[in-house]
Design goal:
- The structure holds two protein chains of two kinds.
- Chain A has three helices and two strands; from the N terminus they run H-H-E-H-E.
- Chain A is mainly alpha-helical.
- Chain A has a domain of 38 residues.
- The relative contact order of chain A is 0.09.
- The model of chain A has no long low-confidence stretch (mean pLDDT 91).
- By secondary structure, chain B is an alpha+beta fold.
- Chain B starts with a strand and ends with a helix.
- The model of chain B has no long low-confidence stretch (mean pLDDT 91).
- Classes of the chains: A mainly alpha, B alpha+beta.
- At the A-B interface, helix 1, strand 1, helix 3 and strand 2 of A face strand 3, helix 1, strand 10 and strand 17 of B.
- Strand 1 of chain A pairs parallel with strand 3 of chain B.
Chain lengths: 95, 485
């Protein structure tokens, strides 16, 4: 599967990564190579094999329903550039 | 009665499907140990998992899974023993991970149904397409600062159930009934408190219209986050009218996301919709598939409480109540429990009348919920016992009830204190009857002249003379006897 410039532009937008127009061509080639490499897996015969998302032979571990965490506002906001009144403050996002 | 919009080119039918987001009642969040309570100080119920700090891993809260399974069973739905959590990717300031952990291709719960009790007494099933689990996002506050948005992550990571209906609803009223029924079921189950004002239950509304008689669906729009039953009904009515107007003026309805403006009662298109839906779902590598066993599901099913539909049927069959009365009483579990406590060992219909007409009337007047009722079920029951034992008449009982509403007092004590005990002593009533007859010779003449209707007036006079305390049946009998002679 080959990606063109337009597809790379869309992917960059969806990932909120600013990519200069002149880099798109090069990235399209690089990403197409990566996809081609992964697509080699298609050569393996998987007929009759259930799709899986993990090779781990364990089940999903579960937690009790009890409050064991939180109440750490200073820690949570420690890296926020401009916290105010206990909130994160970000440039206005309004729909 | 079908809900149709009359257009210039003919009648239009409305097709509605609802996506309800219901917060699961639990102490801790879906994937972290932070608390879930509403109204806490901003960012005080946030773990580093909820804030999406690097290296944090989600661990699922088993009780939230149980709650979602319980809800699925309450919707008569199939529970999938194998389900998968996926990442739904999008950017928003109140979504620190940059994705929401949700379920997509393999949800926890499949098809089920909800029964609507329609105004004409009939009922109808509305299909449920699926129920899946996901995380809630944080909350954005846009009105605290002119140039900035404030973010509170307390809600971030709270467990949600997204419940998707089939496009089976055909009017704003049906949509309202569906939401109320869904809320009642979840409140009975204790899986969601259904509080739309606090946002623990929110609704996205999918609407399309089509010419009456068409069988294919036309393009639908989705109106997001409508936060009351009334607003949902308004949004549907407005959106349907808008779409009809678009078609009739030769245009086409675009598939788009819209917002409801409660101040204007209308929907409007959201901006920036060109990239609106590209969520790039993929299975979350941090979470293994959720595997449940048949035994686990059955143990939850075995412990389900009696749900509104079953309770309604039992009230009708066991207590002889009308569909309407039974429906009113089962709408809230607390009300049904209250009613049952009053009705136990007493006349069930009388109990229903008192709870529905008198108690609900008083609670409405005072703006109180059933849990806050100044009259306990026990006390109301004792009042009914006094009527049944002829200690007081129905009319006096209403007086006593008003005192109970004000003071929360016991029926028996109020009757004794105020001397309201019914007069059943024949001699005492006879004296009053004799006096009324003696003082009103003209009326007596009329009665004896054939105007028997005037008997009612005499009863009224005797009751007045006895302060309403005379046993009305005895008064009637004595009057009849004495007026005839």
């Amino acid at each position: 599967m080959a990606l063109d410039k337009a597809a790379v532009r869309t992917i960059a937008f969806l990932a909120r990564i600013k990519v200069p127009e002149e880099d798109l061509e090069h990235l399209a080639g690089e990403m197409s190579n990566i996809l081609g490499w992964v697509e080699q897996l298609g050569e393996v015969d998987t007929s009759g094999v259930e799709p899986m998302t993990s090779g781990a032979e364990t089940t999903l571990p579960q937690r009790e329903d009890s409050v064991t965490d939180g109440d750490a506002r200073d820690q949570v906001l420690a890296n926020a550039p401009q916290p105010e009144d206990g909130f994160y403050a970000v440039p206005k996002v309004l729909e | 009665m079908a809900y149709l919009i009359a257009g210039e080119t003919g009648d239009w039918e409305v097709v509605i499907g609802l996506e309800v987001h219901a917060q699961i009642v639990s102490r801790a969040k879906l994937f972290s140990g932070a608390a879930t309570g509403f109204g806490a100080e901003p960012n005080t119920q946030v773990s580093l998992v909820d804030a999406a700090m690097p290296g944090m891993l989600p661990v699922i809260n088993g009780y939230c899974v149980e709650q979602a399974v319980r809800t699925g069973l309450g919707l008569k739905a199939q529970v999938n023993l194998h389900s998968v959590f996926e990442r739904k990717n999008y950017f928003y300031a109140d979504l620190p991970q940059g994705y929401q952990i949700s379920q997509y291709q393999q949800p926890l719960v499949g098809e089920g149904w909800v029964v609507l009790d329609l105004a004409d007494g009939s009922s109808r099933e509305v299909g449920i397409e699926r129920l899946h689990m996901e995380q809630d996002a944080g909350k954005s506050l846009h009105d605290r600062d002119p140039g900035r948005t404030f973010i509170d992550l307390n809600r971030s990571g709270i467990a949600l159930m997204e419940i998707v209906s089939r496009p089976d609803l055909r009017s704003p009223e049906e949509a309202g009934l569906y939401l109320r029924k869904l809320r009642a079921i979840m409140r009975y189950l204790g899986t969601c408190d259904g509080n739309m004002e606090q946002g623990s239950m929110r609704c996205d509304v999918n609407v399309s219209v089509r010419k009456a008689g068409e069988t294919d669906l036309r393009t639908r729009t989705e109106t997001k986050n409508v936060n009351s039953v009334r607003f949902v009904m308004q949004a549907i009515a407005h959106e349907a009218e808008r779409q009809v107007a678009v078609y009739e003026s030769g245009g086409t309805v675009e598939q788009e996301t819209r917002l409801f403006d409660p101040d204007r009662g209308e929907t409007r298109a959201m901006r920036a919709k060109e990239f609106a839906h590209d969520y790039r779902y993929f299975p979350d590598p941090d979470l293994l598939p959720l595997e449940l066993t048949e035994d686990y599901v059955e143990s939850i099913r075995a412990a389900l409480p009696e749900l509104p539909d079953e309770k309604k049927r039992r009230f009708m069959a066991g207590f002889g109540l009308s569909p309407y009365d039974a429906g009113v009483l089962v709408a809230e579990r607390e009300t049904a429990d209250f009613y049952e406590a009053v009705a136990r060992g007493r006349d069930a219909k009388t109990a229903a009348n008192w709870v529905i007409s008198n108690l609900f009337g008083a609670l409405n007047r005072k703006g109180l919920s059933i849990a806050e009722s100044p009259v306990s079920a026990e006390n109301l029951g004792r009042l009914l016992d006094l009527i049944a034992a002829d200690t007081i008449s129905g009319r006096i009982a209403k007086e006593v009830f008003e005192v109970m509403v004000e003071t929360g007092g016991d029926a028996g004590s109020i009757v004794e204190e105020k001397g309201l005990r019914q007069i059943t002593d024949t001699a005492e009533i006879e004296a009053a009857v004799d006096k009324v007859i003696a003082e009103n010779p003209d009326q007596v003449a009329k009665f004896r002249g054939g105007n028997e209707k005037i008997a009612g007036w005499f009863v009224g006079q005797v009751m007045k003379a006895t302060g309403g305390k005379a046993n009305p049946k005895l008064v009637g009998e004595l009057l009849k006897e004495k007026l005839r002679n």
